[in-house]
Amino acid sequence: MNSNVATFNDVQTLVVIGNGMVGHHCVEQLIERGALDRYRLHVFSEEPLRAYDRVHLSEYFAGRDAESLALGEAALYQRPGVTLHLGVPVLEIDRERREVITAEGCVHYDKLVLATGSYPFVPPIEGAEGDSRLVYRTLADLDTIRAAANKARRGVVVGGGLLGLEAANALKSLGLDAHVVEFAPRLMPVQLDDQGGQALKARIEALGVGVHLSKGTQSISAGSEYRYRMNFAGDDFLETDLIVFSAGIRPQDALARQCGLELGPRGGVAIDGQCLTSDPDIYAIGECAAWNGSIYGLVAPGYQMARGVAAQLCGEAADPFIGADMSTKLKLLGVDVGSIGDAHGALPGARSYRFIDEATSSYRRLVVSADGKQALGAVLVGDNSYYDTLLQYVQNGITLPADPSSLILPLGEAAPALGADALPATATVCSCHNVSKGSICSAIDGGCTDLAGVKACTKAATGCGGCAGLLKQVVEHELAARGVAVDKSLCEHFAYTRQELYGIVRVEGIETFEEMLAKHGRGHVGCEICKPAIGSILASCWNRPIQEPWLVPLQDTNDTFMANMQKNGTYSVVPRIPGGEITPEGLIAIGEVAKKYNLYTKITGGQRIDLFGAQLHELPGIWGELIAAGFETGHAYGKSTRTVKSCVGSTWCRYGVQDSVKMALDIEHRYKGLRSPHKLKFAVSGCTRECAEAQSKDVGVIATEKGWNLYVCGNGGMRPRHAELFATDLDDETLIRYIDRFLMFYIRTADKLQRTSVWRESLEGGLDYLKAVIIDDSLGLAAELEAQMQTVVDRYECEWANAIQDPEKLKRFRTFVNDQRGDPDIHFVNERGQRRPVKAAELNLIPVAEEVV
To answer: Would the pTM of this model clear 0.90, i.e. be above it?
Structure first.
C-alpha cells in the first residue's frame, strides 16, 4: 500500500455539529485542505436544509428560494468520506465515550467541532404566544411569518438592531403596515451614536415604517382594532396583528452545558486562541463560542475561527484568534448604514468630526486620536460611499490628511478617495474571508487576469459582498500596473465601453441595433445589458420614437409601454407639466381623465400630477384624451429628462430677482425627450432662497441680480449629492449654451446607468477639467456638442402622440392578445376617497361587493 495513503485504521472520525454559514465554511476549509485523507466527516444539521445564506435571508420574501440561497454545491456533501445528517439534531454529547447521541443513534468522534450558532432571545412577556411570538432566524421562521402575514394588516418587530430592521423590511415587503419597537432610545444602539440613530430613524420613518423608541413591552393582550395589543409603561400601547421578536441573540450552548464544558461569563462555550474548549478534543466556532468573554455575532469572525480550526485539524499552522473587527456596512430598508471601529469615541482622548445634513437625514462621524493623526472609528447613515476609504484608514493606521474632516465632507469639498495604490499589502479587502491586498496581488501574479478569476481564487467578495467595489478597484489597478489590459467590455456581445459605442454610433451614423451588432458585435440577439444600453445611445443621438419596431425590443418594461409599471401590475400616467405651470383648464382635463378611469392621483415632488392604477389596455385611451387636452408624455418611464422644478420667481414673489418660471419652461421644452445614461432632473430658483431646491439636481439654476448661477451634478435618491457651482451671473443665451454642452458631453462620455454625480466623480481633473471643456472649449468640442443637441431638439415628438396614431403600435397595449378585457387578477380597495392596490395580505379579506378590476 502507498505509504502516503492513510489506512482504514489511520482514519479518524471528525464530527461537526451545525450546518449554518460558519459550520459550512469549516467543512469547505477542511475538504479544501485535504481533511478527507485523515478523517471521516459527519455533519449534523438541526434544519432539514443544507447550509444557506443567512446574510441575505430577507431576499426569501423577494422571490428567492432555499436552493438559490444555498451555500456552495450539494456535491460538496456527496463526496466519499462525508455524511450530512439533515434534520437530525444532536441531543447529547458523551465526552467520556466520545460520542454524539441523536434520535437516530450514536456516532463516535475523535475530534468534535461545535458550530451550533445562536437562537433569538424572546423576553419573558405575559401573553407572548402564537403569532405574537414569532422570530426571524431560519427559513422555517420566515415561512411562519409569511403564513401569519396572510391574515394580517399590521406587523411589529420588537428590537431595532440590525436583524430587527431586516425583519421590519420583510414585513413591509409582505404588504404589512410595519412598525419597530426598541427598548433603547435609538435604533441600532450598538453600532450608532445618538445622532446617527436619529438620522436612521428619520430615513426609516420616511419609508413608511413606524419607529417607537424607549418602549419596553410589559404584556400582550387582545386588541380592539387589531389582533394584539402591546402594553408599554403607563397607558401607552400599540396594536398589531403579529409580533416578531428580534431583541438580540443568545449562544446555542445547551450541548456544552449538558456535557459539562466550561462556559463564558455570559454564556457561550469558552474557547482559547485556538478555538479549543475545556476539552482538548472539542472546538467551538461562531456565535456559540465565547472568546475572552465576548461573543461575535457577525459572519466574518466566525469564518476566521473556522479557517483556524480547519488548519489545525489538518496539521497546519494557524494564527490564533484574538478577537475581530466588528465594523459593518449594511443596507437596511434601502438605507445605507456603516459602523467602523470605535464608532462611539470611547477610547481615551478620542475626538470627533461630524457632518449633519438634516434635509436628507444624512450623518457622518469620524473619530480620531487625540493628536488627530489616526482614525479610530466612524459612523455613516445615508451614504456608504465613504465606508471603504474610512475602513482602510482605521484598519491600517494610515496617517490622516491635515484636515481629517475632509474625509466626510460632501462631494466637491471632500478629500479624494483613498486609491488602491495607497493601500498597504496588509490591508484587508474582504473581511469575511480574510483576504488582504497582498493575497489579491499574489493571485494576479499566479495567473488570475480578471475579477472573476481573483474571486474564484481568493473567495473575496463571495461572503456578504460588501467589498465588491473595493475589490474591483484593487484588481483593475494591479492588472494595469502589470501591463495587463483591463477588459471593460460592455458585455459578451460588444468588446467596447459605452463611451466607445457612442462614438461608433455617431461617426458611422448607425441607427439600428441590428446594424450595430452586425458591424461591431458578436452573436445574433444581444442581451439585457447591451440592448437597453445601445437603445439609449441610439435615442440620445437620433431621438427616434421609442416605439419604432427596431427600438422596442431593446427596452425594459417601462419604456416598452411608455409608463411605469407599479407593484400590482398596473401603470402610472404622468403628463408633462413644464415648470409646474398649469392652466385651470389643464387641471380640469386631468381631473376628468382621472375620474373617468378611476385613477389614484397624487402631486409629485417634481410639480407634476401622477395618475396611478391604469391597466395596460387603458393606456392608449387615457393618453388620447390627455393629448387632445394639450398634454404630452412626461417621460417619467425613461432614462431621460424628467422634470424642471421651479418657484414662482419675480412674477409673483417679492424676493424673486429673475423670471424663474419662464426659464424653467424654456429649459424643459428644450430638453424634453432627451435620452441619457440615467434620468435627468432640473430646477430653477428665482432667488438665493432656493425654493425649487436647485442644488440637489443634475442641473440647477439659481437667479442672481446679474443673471443666473449654474450648478451641476447633484441628485437626491439613495446617494444624495449637492450640486457644484459651475458658472456665475450668466445671461439667458450663455446659460442654455453651457447646459447644451454639459448634457451632451455627459451623454457622450458617461458609463451605462451612471448618474451625473457619479460621472463627475470619475472625471480626471474633476470640476476644473469639466469647466475647461464646457466653458473654455479646451477639447474643441463646443460647436459639435451644441449642434448635436440642436439635432435632438429639432427631432422631438411626443412618443405617445406618435404611438396612438399607429394601429400596429397600439396592438402592443393589450393584456390578452385576442381579448380587450383587463387583467382579472388586479384588485383595488378604496382608501381616503381613492382606490389603491390590494396588498398581498389583504387578498383573502376583500368583501364580495368590493371592486375587482
So the answer is: no
